[in-house]
Amino acid sequence: MPKQKTHSGAKKRFKLTGSGKIKKQQSGMRHNLEVKSTQRKRRLNNDQLVSKADTKNIKKLLGH
Questions:
Q1: In a domain, 44, yes or no
Q2: Dihedral, 27, 46, 41, 7 alpha carbons, nearest 10
Q3: Contact present, 46 and 26 (Cβ < 8 Å)
Q4: Do residues 7 and 61 make contact, with C-beta atoms less than 8 angstroms apart?
Q5: How many domains does the chain have?
Q6: C-alpha distances in angstroms, 54 versus 20, 33, 46, 50, 58?
Q7: Of residues 23, 3, 21, 27, the one with CA closest to residue 11
């Protein structure tokens, strides 16, 4: 049986932590940045953990 390929879109968007959780970049930092406050941009720039409901599907896409 052939090997399962990693989903190329998922590999660009998600990163596995050492404990097995999945990190992602928050949305809202692509455009209209001059409208948003500095505090809001600072908060949005931090990585976020993926919700528990989505973790199983994303791990499958990443081949874990």
A1: yes
A2: -20
A3: yes
A4: yes
A5: 1
A6: 13, 28, 19, 7, 6
A7: 23
Domain assignment of residue 55, yes or no? yes
Domain residue limits at 34: 8-62
Between CA 62 and CA 59 the distance in angstroms is 5
Express each pLDDT in 5-61 by its tens digit. Answer: 999 999 999 999 999 999 999 999 999 999 999 999 999 999 999 999 999 999 999
Going by the DSSP 8-state scheme, the letter that residue 61 receives in this structure is: H
Do residues 51 and 63 touch, judged by C-beta distance below 8 A?
A: no
Question: Whole-prediction pTM value?
Answer: 0.81
User: Does residue 1 lie in a domain region?
Assistant: no
